Amino acid sequence: MKVIEKKKILLICFFIILILIFFLFCYYCMVKKMKIGNNKSSQEMVYDILNIKSYEAVIEVVVKSNKNQNKYLIKQKYNGENSNYQEVIEPSNIRGVRIVKTNNELKIENTNLNLVSIFENYEYLSENHLDLNNFISDYKQYNNSRYKEKQEEIIMETLSKTNFKIKKSLYINKKTEKPIKLEIDDTNKKTSVYILYREVNINS
Q1: Alpha-carbon distance 20 to 30, whole Å?
Q2: Which of 70, 145, 152, 171 could bridge across to 158 with cysteines, CB 3.0–4.6 Å?
Q3: Where are the alpha helices (DSSP H) in the chain?
Q4: Short-list 82, 60, 77, CA closest to 69
Q5: Which residues, in sequence order, are CB contacts of 79 under 8 Å at separation 6+?
Q6: CATH architecture classification, 42-202
Q7: Does residue 179 have a cis bond before it (omega within 30 degrees)?
């Protein structure tokens, strides 16, 4: 009888250990799945932004200076350093104006008036501060670029690589891991630009 009781106890202990192992395995899988899903660290999110390969966005641009304020609605498309374009949606008087960059060629089109101007090896080709990829380039090249965290946002801060008086701040939504706002302050010209990302699709 004692031998049978010992066997029963051993069997019960064995099953308890099996159940514990099973629950530990399930917990590990759940944690791993959460990590892969929407629980990236801030550093990982910043890394993903800095390694964007392509994006499409509709942005609202507000330009403020001492004298006036202007607002624009622009569609952007970026597909690598050598291919991107911007098209004005609003205001209506310049709707259809499109700026297309391909390699070292800059093309300005007005689809409503059927006008095209082409500039080759344009000196200020890389100076479009409205582009997300321009911010990324500045962030990578400026040694003192940094980011900070708020409750629901990550704020990446840098200076323009061509003009250290231009400060840039990109706000990232922690839940969606997408840009929500880009602020550009030019202290020299006393001008501020606020870019709100109404729609943005990254690496799609």
Answers
A1: 15
A2: 145
A3: 2-36, 42-50, 132-141
A4: 60
A5: 54
A6: Clam (2.50)
A7: no
